[in-house]
């Protein structure tokens, strides 16, 4: 489930889900639901603001401000980046890090660079706030 959602098709799931109560003026939410294995993740990228919540498993986050592009290769997995580049990159840029666990959420600001690394089998949902 990603992007424009067919709320009727996903009604049973969405009836069980309480979206974050925080909203941005003139922004509507778009939901993304995912299941991923340990060691998987998403390389550095950016987009509009939103929230990510862990339903099952732990997900590690790496973030930098919009004006501090971290060094990464788009064809390298986050796990490869972590083992090969992370020790150097965390010295070169101000890297914000956290691990979210089931029941926890993170807010990612507009255009902040971020990458994720699933530490366990993970189930997660993201709420993207778009204009």
Would you mind describing this structure in some detail?
The protein has three helices and eight strands. The protein is an alpha+beta fold.
How do the strands of the widest beta sheet line up side by side? 1-8-3-6
Molecular shape: globular
Unreliable spans are none
What is the number of helical segments per DSSP (H or I, 4+ residues)?
3
Cα distance, first to last residue? Answer: 20 Å
What keyword list fits this structure?
four-stranded antiparallel beta sheet; alpha+beta; 8 strands; 131 residues
TL;DR of this structure?
This protein is an alpha+beta fold. It is built from three helices and eight strands.
Q: How are the elements arranged and paired?
A:
Blueprint: H1 11-16, E1 28-36, E2 41-45, E3 50-56, E4 59-64, H2 78-84, H3 86-92, E5 96-100, E6 105-108, E7 113-118, E8 122-130
Antiparallel strand pairs: 1-8, 2-7, 3-6, 3-8, 4-5, 4-7
């Amino acid at each position: 489930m990603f992007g424009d959602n067919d709320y009727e098709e996903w009604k049973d799931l969405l009836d069980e889900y309480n979206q974050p109560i925080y909203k941005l003026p003139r922004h509507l939410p778009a939901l993304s639901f995912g299941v991923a294995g340990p060691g998987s993740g998403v390389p550095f990228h950016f987009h509009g603001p939103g929230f990510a919540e862990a339903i099952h498993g732990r997900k590690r986050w790496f973030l930098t401000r919009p004006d501090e592009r971290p060094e990464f290769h788009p064809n390298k997995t986050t796990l490869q980046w972590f083992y090969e580049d992370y020790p150097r990159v965390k010295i070169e840029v101000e890297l914000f890090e956290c691990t979210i666990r089931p029941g926890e959420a993170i807010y990612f600001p507009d255009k902040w660079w971020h990458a994720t690394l699933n530490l366990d089998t993970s189930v997660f949902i993201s709420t993207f706030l778009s204009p």
